[in-house]
Design goal:
Blueprint: E1 2-4, E2 7-9, E3 12-16, H1 29-45, H2 54-58, H3 61-71, E4 77-80, H4 96-105, E5 110-112, H5 121-135, E6 139-142, H6 159-171, E7 175-179, H7 195-203, E8 208-212, H8 219-226, E9 232-235, H9 242-245, H10 247-260, E10 266-267, H11 277-286, H12 301-315, H13 328-331
Parallel strand pairs: 3-4, 4-5, 6-7, 7-8, 8-9, 9-10
Antiparallel strand pairs: 1-2
């Protein structure tokens, strides 16, 4: 929870990870390329006071995660969005067992989402059914640019992808988070294109498609899709730190999202551990669109409260104490 100027904000960090990129888990040079690219984003977009040493960044563990999010970071609830990256990491990049154990230990604070890859075809579908039962899945995180054998990515509207979405719907997994954002070395830029969201959002209206990183650098493409598809949502991972390095660019991003989607379909996330939530929450609460960018209206307290937590809480049925819910005065 974060409070300032008499207002209290319920914080849901909707995109976090617990990864292991240490050398003994790197399967090949691409594992090092991937985490080095992550670290470059961290180093280039963070305030100097928030920088981590490289060795700590490779693996930080559950104890530090709990401290950074819940002791220091104002977060009330957080959602794991793992990436497997089995072609680059011996035991996977996202640490399934450790993250799930933390979520079981702290069910009031953590939700564990899992992942799938439709290129595993029927074997993967069978695994999805087992995973749904074991993890109690409400959501998944998809990485369409992940490598698998000779394939360097897949589309959401591929035939096997559709079968997985059908199965997810059958199993009650309603929240489909998709990495559609900046290129991460060595993955291919085109495999993150947002166009494939359009067809599946139309064909699966009962599912929520949360486009993580809001399609950056394809913000305009994303917005034109999302304005037509009411079940498409924007995740602010990667967008958030521009509030520090390029505040006018962040103002453009949030202004365009509010114009096309409105405040009910935008979700805050720190993308931990690329960044930690504390400074992002503080700066977003204080942030206002510059007056000379008058094509965008000022951000309201109600909009900030929805984006910082109430939207994701509604999607995941996370209880919100009455003190943090919107009152008629705030809504107005």
């Amino acid at each position: 929870m974060y409070s300032k100027d008499g207002e209290s904000y319920f914080i849901v960090d909707a995109h976090i990870a617990l990864w292991d990129a240490r050398p003994d888990n790197q399967l090949n040079v691409h594992g090092k390329q991937f985490i080095d690219c992550f670290y470059d984003y961290h180093r280039n977009l963070s305030p100097a006071s928030e920088l981590w040493p490289y060795e700590e960044y490779l693996y930080y563990g559950g104890e530090r995660l709990m401290k950074d999010l819940f002791t220091d970071g104002y977060v009330d609830h957080a959602i794991f969005q793992p990436a497997r990256l089995g072609a680059f990491y011996r035991n996977g990049f996202g640490q399934t067992e450790e993250a799930f154990a933390l979520a079981r230990q702290h069910p009031d604070k953590l939700t564990y989402n899992h992942c799938w890859d439709p290129r595993f075809e029927q074997a993967g579908l069978d695994q999805l059914r087992r995973d749904a039962g074991r993890f109690g899945l409400k959501g998944v995180k998809l990485y369409t640019a992940e490598w698998h054998g000779d394939s360097r990515g897949y589309k959401l509207d591929d035939p096997w992808s559709r079968r997985y979405l059908e199965t997810a719907q059958e199993l009650g997994i309603k929240n489909i988070h998709i990495h559609k954002g900046p290129t991460i070395r060595p993955l291919d830029r085109d495999a993150f294109d947002v166009a494939d969201v359009d067809q599946v959002a139309t064909d699966f209206p009962e599912l929520n498609f949360v486009v993580e990183h809001c399609g950056l650098p394809r913000l305009e493409d994303f917005c034109w899709i999302a304005t037509q598809e009411p079940n498409v949502h924007a995740g602010l991972a990667v967008a958030m730190p521009f509030i520090h390095t390029r505040p006018r660019y962040f103002a453009q991003i949030i202004g365009e999202l509010l114009y096309w989607l409105d405040e009910d379909r935008i979700q805050f996330s720190s993308d931990y551990a690329l960044w930690t939530p504390r400074w992002l929450v503080e700066r977003f609460v204080d942030f206002q669109i510059p007056e000379d960018m008058d094509e965008y209206p000022p951000l309201t307290v109600a909009q900030k409260k929805k984006i910082l937590g109430l939207n994701a809480a509604a999607m995941y049925d996370i209880p919100v104490p009455a003190a943090y819910q919107l009152t008629p005065a705030v809504v107005a």
